[in-house]
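S.,

Sequence below, as promised.
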Amino acid sequence: MPELRYGTDLSIAGPWQLDSQQLIELNVILDEAWTRLHLGWQNEVNKEVQRRLSDYEKMLAEYGKTATAEELAARETEYRKDVVRFVSPNRNTKIRFRTKEVFDCATIAEAIRERSTLDKTPAGFVTSMEIGKLRCKVSLNDSHIYASSTLDIQVSPEESSEAKELFVALRNWAIRNQPSSLLRWWARVGGATLFWALALSVWGLFVIWIAVTLSTTSAAKSRARDLLDFGISDSNMAEAVELLLILQVDYLPGTTPRDVSVPIWLKAYSFGGLVAVVLLWYKPDVELGIGMGEQRIATRRRWQSLVLKALPAAIFGTIVAPLIYEWFRIAFIGIP
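The prediction came back faster than expected:
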């Protein structure tokens, strides 16, 4: 679920897999905002230049002078350069590849079209723009220091109507293309995490089963140790033989005989867990439809679709079905 930190700042957990079409949609949103804001910025620049020209003409008038057309044109050019120099719009995109290389360009669309990226696999990106007072940044796994599958959207200032409008468009795009809850769960538990969780749980269940099984003859073992401490004599020979038989067959007279073979529920859990580990080992990761990433996304989506369809059937076939059969066999056929 998206976590709204404040008005125009949003983070949504991954793993994000954005193909070229989804990235183009993001680029279109930013292009439209850039065009609209750039027009407004030009109007503000023109207003500032005209204000300075007006002040210049007033200053000349105080001295009884009038500026010629050539002088006003030169002043306008000078003022325009000065204004643009301090508030010049900036738009930049950085694509980070798995090789730690970084490709700089203006827009995401340029990165998709760039031939030099065709043989590279992207790992993350950051695209930003600054125009007038508005600041916008969209990033995904853009750091070399740590890996993050969270998409971050930051637009400011929060009180600006243009910032709010752009943020809403970006938020709607992100929610529309965000990964499913199943993919998020898979990314958290897949791979080595699931393997070790299964291994520890099987080991724990096996220890519990052994403890329960051995508890049947624990009293006999205690009595046998006492006999060994005091020594075997003619008077306790019969008891010693009985204890030996009890420990040999793992059966205490007067109790229900226990099946010391590995129970079917433990076999089913172990085998079913192994199947789940195999299916979930290749867990979802960040993928972008730039360069070789486009083919990787197609491959991952086919695998993810197969696993999400096959996993329920595998769990039912290896865990649920054997347990149902065992219960039916004991309850209705009467075979222990």
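Residues 20-62 form the longest helix (43 residues).

Coffee later?
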